[in-house]
Amino acid sequence: MTDFRVKKLQKMFHTFFDVNNDGVLEQADFEQTAERFRSVSGWAAGSPEATKTRKVILGLWERLRSKADSDGDGKVTFQEYLAASDAGTTTAFRQDYRDFFFKVIDDTGDGIIDKDEYLRVFKKFGIDAAALGDAFDSFTKNGTVPVNAEYFAQLWKEYFTSNDLNAPGNRFFG
Ligand SMILES: [Ca+2]
Ligand SMILES: [Ca+2]
Ligand SMILES: [Ca+2]
Question: Start and end of every EF-hand domain (predicted)?
């Protein structure tokens, strides 16, 4: 894997997956992610939507753990994550996460992620708002390319797999 891709995976791993910032992925990170999605969506704690979201997120974690936790200690280090990504065994996890995530971000349910929706969710992960605004303008060509499910899938894939320094998806996480 190229350094460029490793860097992108590293950034994503630390800002987006390892939400409690202890350097490894474990169930607690995904519990917190479910809580962030709950609060950004405005669902009450314990509501059916919140419960369902938590179940989906923990299912995603279980899927990642089963593929990437090679020493079986219940945690996924960046090295383990990288090895699994390199081997291609995290692809199904990534795609399921993507489909779920699209629905979470698309708050209005119109099938398009607009700038407000994007900023609301990504700011929750502590990414700088100005960088996010720039990023959104860049991958939508100043708002002229709508982020529908198809384009979202392209951006997501580019982020994880593209070696092209100019691929719009490189900016997906700010
Ligand atoms: Ca962690
Ligand atoms: Ca492990
Ligand atoms: Ca929308």
Answer: 93-128
